[in-house]
Design goal:
Shape: flat
Number of strands: 8
Structural class: alpha+beta
Number of domains: 3
Number of helices: 9
Largest sheet: 4 strands, antiparallel
Order of helices and strands: HHHHHEEHHEEEEHHEE
Length: about 240
């Protein structure tokens, strides 16, 4: 028999925890998302644990199992709400904040989110910027990452800048995986088995089962990796434990 008091309790407590987590996340701000320290990590776990304990201790029986379902539904509903409503998206997810514009730092915006110069310089270095004079604009996104636009004189040259024509380059197609032909990709590229076997024959490959992976580039080049072509020497990237 359904205990409506317990059902109402688990729904109300799950809703309280969900709303509280949104509020706390907004109060902590973007800096928490972008630069989670060990202390921030522990704090996040504690907040989540307390929220979960509140629901489990106040709800009896199997009704507590409804809590993760309710929280999931609330997340889905919130996602739909932020998709359809701009004010809701700004309230829940926040807005981008300009940190640097026209080479000038906006100290007021930094103060709003408790963002110091060390935070700014660290994220600039992560973007490959070690000199502030190179920055035209920097925007702190809602997810806490910094988007950086360098001044035009510090941007790398592109073929377009030099008026050089380039060929189209897209995602390569997997033609053979683990010795099996991917028929769908072969058809999508308007290729036949005869074409494939001719290409393999030109590479002195007689047995398709020997192929671990074969991909076709947008330029029409077939890359083939065989099972038996592993290098005799593999470079070690791990640190040597014997070195002190």
């Amino acid at each position: 028999m359904v205990d409506y008091s317990e059902l109402g309790q688990v729904i109300s407590h799950s809703l309280i925890v969900f709303v509280l987590l949104i509020i706390l996340t907004r109060l902590i701000g973007k800096k928490f998302l972008a630069q989670m320290t060990f202390f921030d990590f522990v704090t996040g776990i504690i907040i989540g644990t307390i929220g979960g304990a509140y629901v489990t201790t106040e709800t009896k029986g199997y009704y507590v199992l409804l809590s993760p379902i309710i929280l999931t539904l609330l997340v889905v509903l919130t996602g739909y709400l932020t998709l359809k409503s701009t004010p809701a998206r700004k309230l829940i997810e926040g807005e981008p904040l300009v940190m640097i514009q026209n080479g000038n730092i906006f100290e007021e915006n930094m103060r709003k989110i408790r963002y110091n110069m060390d935070d700014l310089m660290m994220q600039l270095r992560e973007k490959g910027v070690f000199d502030l004079t190179e920055v035209e604009s920097a925007i702190l996104e809602p997810h806490g990452k910094l988007s950086v636009l360098k001044k035009s004189q510090h941007l790398p040259l592109t073929p377009k800048d030099l008026n050089i024509a380039t060929n189209y380059k897209g995602v390569s197609s997997e033609i053979i995986i683990d010795g099996n032909i991917v028929e769908q990709n072969l058809k999508q590229n308007n290729l036949s088995h005869e074409w494939l076997y001719n290409e393999l024959s030109a590479k002195n490959i007689k047995n398709i089962r020997e192929i671990f992976l074969a991909t076709l580039s947008t330029g029409g080049n077939l890359y083939v990796d065989l099972r038996s072509d592993n290098p005799k020497y593999i470079q070690e990237v791990e640190d040597d434990d014997s070195v002190i």
